Amino acid sequence: MSDRLRIVHCFRSPVGGIFRHVRDLTEAQVEAGHSVGIICDASTGGAHEDRLFEAIEPMLALGIRRTPMQRHIGPGDIAAGWRTYRIIKELQPDVLHGHGAKGGTYARAFGSLLRVSRSRVARLYSPHGGSLHYDERTTMGKLFFGLERLMERFTDHLLFVSDYERRTFHRKVGHPRIANSLVYNGLGEAEFEPVAAGQDAADFLYIGMMRDLKGPDLFIDALARTGQHLGRPVSAVMVGDGEHLPRYKAQVDRLGLTGEVRFMDPMPARQAFALARCVVVPSRAEAMPYVVLETLAAGKPIIATAVGGIPEILGKASPALTYPDAGDISEKMVAALESPSGYAALMPGIAELRSRFSVTVMASQVEEAYLSALERRPCRNTFAGQVGCSRVS
After folding, report:
1. CB 5 within 8 A of CB 94
2. What is the mean pLDDT of each run of 10 residues along the chain (393 residues)?
3. Angle at CA of residue 53, ends 50 and 58, nearest 5°
4. pTM of the model
5. DSSP secondary-structure letter at 391?
């Protein structure tokens, strides 16, 4: 057997943290000499995502294959699933890594079908929040968590991006009966360089998907409260796109903030950081958001809700943490504006972040999971720098 793997990443939506996570992994895996490909939805994403695909496509030996995938379970999954299966079968992967609920289902189901034809493909699943955001007391939640339990039978390894995600899986689905590990998201070395605010920088930045789960409505309400408390306008930039964008623009108009809030199309995070002095992450739910890591690595102060894995980044007692509530977020905004230098000094140090959240560490641990699922000893020239390679019969 060759020391090199054929790795295919399967996920639905090429936006946000999942897409960022896959891009980081693919770049590291290609650098290690593996052949890598991507399968994802063709109907989501925009010009920004198209540029990101163009940047990575030349390095992907197995290419980028986009096919329509609907977000929710429905009859359309029959056609989408058949198309995805044919692509996976054509690519003949050694490793099939599914990300998110839809990608995880496709990767594990179709990887299992390949095994029927004597393929030895390894089937890995990273939830990235996904179905774990559902309430286990609801009918929909019970359905999804029952499916998650069933899909364990077709999974070789579970990869969690935060301890919160792992604990949530334990509580809502059950203790995993298969191999599993915790691998934090990581940043590249260049991302630990500081980003200074521009001369006309706004007070606050929101960057992310325009959907209620991420809390843009909380951000807008908090801005209005902060301005009222301080008795002066508070400026902000909101960067991102999504189906609810018109509603947030209407909310800004309704609250009389039109002159203080600028909406901008998606752009690289570090480019957006220069547009404001403080970043706000007002999410109602998260797994392990890259934007928090990117913000801190760039030397920017942050206000973030204590949801998902965010406290694992900032520390559970961090004064930068708040509840997903407009009033509480506003209190942090006031503190950041009244004492900018004092508030910035409360952020974690760059050296600590670099030691815990690096691409090198992340990629090494993910490859260990791949090799374990393939029943191999570690290969030479892998991320961990180990030597020797063989498949166990």
Report:
1. yes
2. 84 90 96 97 90 96 95 82 95 96 94 87 92 87 91 96 94 95 94 95 97 97 98 97 95 98 96 98 93 97 96 96 98 98 95 91 95 66 36 33
3. 135
4. 0.81
5. B
